[in-house]
Amino acid sequence: MKALLLFIFGSVILLQYSCSTEPENDYTYFKIMVDSISHSGIISVDDTLKIKFYGFVGPDGCHKFSRFEEHKNNNVLELIVWGYKPNFQTACPEVLVYLDGEEYKTVLNQIGIYHIKINQPDNSVFLDSVYVL
């Protein structure tokens, strides 16, 4: 009976990992170059800051925006904009893909100047700021 249970448990584990379709295996993630952003220059404390992002994502319809990666430290808001493309061959629409105002939202809860740092793929940093009253 023990052997049968071990066999069943082992088979389930093996199937779970051998049939994995995790996105990390199917896609390559990359940083997106941000050309510009738009947001309110002044917001009230505990209000939501909304930043719209603009930039080139990729040369075909298989390149897509993925997510924003955020790191807050005191009065610094550090962001990375991530995209992804498939690792497998597929027919990709012939279209240039842009961020087109992809929106990021966060709540800032300290009064003062927040420095916005956007880490770019070429290791440069896009800088901006917002006043929180």
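The above is record 1. Record 2 follows with the same two-line structure.
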Amino acid sequence: MKNSYWVLLSVLILATFLAIFTASTFSKLQKKEIRNHHVSSRYLTDISNHKFSAVDCAELFSDSTILLFGSSELGFYNTLMPFNFLPDNFGKRLLAIGKAGTQTFADFSVLTSYKKYLKTKQIVILISPNWFCGKSALGTHPALFMNYFNPAFYDTAIIKSEFSEYLTDYYLRNELDLDDQFILRKKLLPLSDINATKIIHNEIMSLGESIKDMLCSNNNLVGKNIIDDDITSKTKEVENYSSFFDTLRVVESKDFLSTCTNNNYGIYDDYYTKYCEGKLPFSLIPTQVSENQELKDLKTLLHFLKTEKYKPLVVLLPVNPYAYDMKDFLPFKQHIENEIKKYNFPFLNLFVNDTTTYQKGMCRDAMHTGPLGWIEINKKIVETFYPNEYGN
């Protein structure tokens, strides 16, 4: 009996030592891995590849931060990007999330994953007309979904709502592409099972808790010290709000047009030579409404924002009418506008379908937002979220 006691005690001591050693080693590796990623409090190209703890989330998603969801237009880094422009000129903090391929279901994935950590209600949603056309109309690609949906932080409140069913439906439609990454066993997903939503939720939560236990076991090693917090506390006063943007438009328009020397379409030289010369006009042809998954995803996202009492500014981005034939898109555009207006959300419509009213520089090329487009977006953000500080 006495020998058994000492054997048990020895095993417990050894197990405790191994647990402490493993946790310490994992935390050091975790910290090193996080530092190898660029975690910025201004712009994240994805989320799931970063090993965030609850402390990191609290830092990134503070109540003073505006969240902006975008796509490939965020990849052309410049000082007019809202995550640069708002902090540097108005002392306001904005975190942009997105990269090429990101569409509205990816935005929905972030919001459902991190819902309980989001302190801010101020959201900017950028919508590209091109998402509703061609292959993009099929919705967010599974690989992009996995960049933004984080099972470790999946919010238990979602299972009590209609939105968990929408996530389940997405999984079932993309099951073959998601199985290896999503770590959900196919035997748990009988298509005829009416409780498939709960099954997926339970599996997600089980996986999430395991990951969270590992990642958050030693939060003192993560948090503010890994965030590139380059947002200063200064508030920069813009003395004459209107003339500030008027002057900026003139300067940026002139600078941009100086880069468009080999065409008259408002497309910068290298892009025109590589993608457009001899190929214009492109066609902007949407998939019909009843089959357009991207439109369904947009409807769900807008409904979610309203249900959760977020305060979103929705922006329909411009497409260069010199580069695209848009006649087929115009009837479809009305469906997008109707969905946004249904919720009475602030709306900035930058889409122009003819060259007579289009300002060169709204797009930098055929489809990506240009300097004049970013100026209008920045101005609308300030007017929407800080109406008492700056005139409308």
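The chain is about 45% helix and 10% strand.
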